[in-house]
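During the no-cost extension, the postdoctoral fellow (Dr. R.K.) reprocessed legacy sequence entries with the updated structure-token encoder. One reprocessed record is reproduced below for audit purposes.
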Amino acid sequence: MQLSLNWLKDFVDIPKSITPEKLGLKLTMHTVEVDGIKKQAEKLDNVVIGEILEIKKHPNADKLNIAQVDVGEEKSRQIVFGQILKVKVGQKIPVALAPTILPDNKKIEKTKLRGEISEGMFCLDQELGLSKDGISAHFFDKKVKNGTSIIETLELDDIIFEVDNKSITNRSDLWGHYGMAREIATFLNVKFKKYKKNFQFSSPAELIEDNFQTNSKFKTREGLAKSIQNSKFKTNNIEVRVEDFNLCSRYMAIALDGIEIKNSPEWMQKRLINVGMRPINNIVDITNYVMLELGQPTHIFDLRKIFKFQFSNSNFQTNSKFKNNIIIRKAGDNEIIETLDGGKRKLDDGMLVIANNEKPIAIAGIMGGKNSEVDNNTTSILIESANFNSVLIRKTAQKLDLRTEASIRFEKSLDPNLCEIALARIIELIKESCQQAKIISKLKDEKKYFLNQGPIELDLEWVNKRIGKKIEKKKIIEILENLGFEIKKNSNILTITIPTWRATKDILIPEDLIEEIARIYGYDNLDSQMPKITMQAPEINNEHLLERKIKNILSEGAKLTEVYNYSFISEDQLVKLKIKPSLTIKLANPLSEDLVILRPSLVPGLLKNIKINQAKEEALAFYEIGNIFLNKPGKINKNNKGKETLFFQEQNLAIILANKQNVDNEVNDLFARLKSIITYLLISLGMEVVFKKAQIVLDWTQDSVTAAICVNDKEIGRATVLGKDILRAFGVKKQAIVAEINFIELNNLAQKQKVKQFKEPLKYPQVARDLAFVISEEILYNDIKQEIKNFNPLISRIELFDVYQGDKIGQGKKNLAWHLTYQADRTLTSSEVDKVQLDLIKQLEKKFFVKIRDF
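Re-encoded structure tokens follow.
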């Protein structure tokens, strides 16, 4: 949108100290985003009014002409021009004198065109920056002196502000100079020239006007109102019917006769040109002028074209066969109207039209119809000032691909009260332009609308707390009152009534008022401060930290691959693992037939992972951390008033390894690898692991090969060789071994671990001895280890470094080789260590029948 500084000054006195650049910055900081500031006179110094004295064809070019033009100099200038402009001798037109540069940066120089000298150029409005669209040119009255500067002729001393339309999408009151002037007056804290209620139209509607003066024969507003009341036109000859007030909340109409179509006054044309609007004729220009001034679109119909009537002795005579109805209704499906732009538009029942008894005469809020257009023969008119549903207008404009200046404004939810002001202003301007114009009907005003004007309670302490700075009560009241809000003061609480022009969809809650106060006060006047918030360290989730640590150990150190499986399994998988259905929880509404039971173990999912990947890799190693579920009582739901007992569930860690093929002699190697991975994991967590023979063996193990995983004499999980029948049932063609550890127990143990502390280097030397003996393979490693560890306090460390089984030591036997480290708080002697070593051998021979290996 373009704003004229001269036009704004009609409503607000801007101090001379406020330059256009400062005003543009203040507008951006307080109200709307200003994209640019254009000085109209810039680069127009060498553009003057020239009179065409002679026109002839160019001798060397069919599409060029040569004109002799009087530009106020001693000699006429020769100008070569094309056929884009249709000019004739005697016309006066803007001429750019070479050399010069135009506002569009086009360089005009004295040059030869096909052998003929051209000393300037005829200028289009677009080249002078007077209009953006189309191709048009200004022709001046013969009274204008040749050589007069275009700046002086058109009074191009204005400053134009380019406003970003997006920044006023929620501000329907800012789509005209009047509303924008109110904002400027508020943040500059200067007087705003408000509209006043000077007179009253004939009932039922009151029209409110500004302090505009008129040169018509009606010297007072009361005179204008009286002319309406004395009209011989009968009210019921024109009827307005709104079929749906949700789509049209207000429709005002009034008829005028004695209209003379001619050019608008120069002052009006200049203002329209300044803001990019092309003048057409006095009647059309007036509607555009009022729209740009007040923000309210209106429309004028040719009365003869929309009603069946004739005029006689200046009295309105209707044809008795027709009723003169204006109907605001929905369009019919496939109903067609030719609009003012010449396009034929196909309508549907989601659109609104203005119609007479026979056909549509306008698309409501968007564009008038060709069949009701004001033309050079128009002598009587019907003026429409209405308010339409914003959503309907937006959708219609999009469907028809027809967005107009009117539709853009109606989309923003205009104040229905604006209809009155705009209609009064149009009548006033028409009477200035057409001295014989008179009102020939009573005003029709059909309306049904509600505006939520509050009131809103505003706590000033709350306001200052939200803004972050204490603003004086007097200043807050001044800001809001200047913006048009009515205020009732009650100590520190303000009761605020919203003005109608802000009550459409703009101001709804107290936070909206805070925004008004802050932006007018000035965001740059608010101190930037970080909020004072007490910082607290987040609660530590030990389970989450342990889970992350385990994943790092297994994925990075042990080179295992983590998997995520569904928490559901099928009944078939349950049968294959030989798990009793009574131990499981069946879903009432399963995702599919394969996902009907909450998993009682992580093993089924891991076996499926092996099956899917077994063709790709020879050796596979996966792990998963997830919940298992059993059909037995679990925790109590404390959030439930009845303290409902939940099903049992716990988090487990499962590891599965699979080798190249299902071969018995590789089971021990696979089992040993699994034990080493578990040992590596637990040692990394600061725990010492012991593997014991499990007392209870599950049905899905191979030959009852199951080891209990113990830490501090507490069983936390099991390592199991999977049975061949189980593997075949799951389609696994490799030997597989699995371990499942209770994650909750593991976490409890991890939390009890002492924090590792620095130890001083040993002051006294260690003594190392090796010990190798043959023992029955049925005796467990852990039993021997515990016996050696507890035999004498001088034994500080033991390490098994070799295990051997073979023909040399006999069947059913195994050889164990140990490193023993002796340490004391003094220097040990060899004889002292030898004695302890000898006593240890005797104890092992006595308890485990070991045979010291010396062969």
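The chain has a mean pLDDT of 85. The radius of gyration is 48 Å. The remaining legacy entries will be reprocessed before the final report is submitted.
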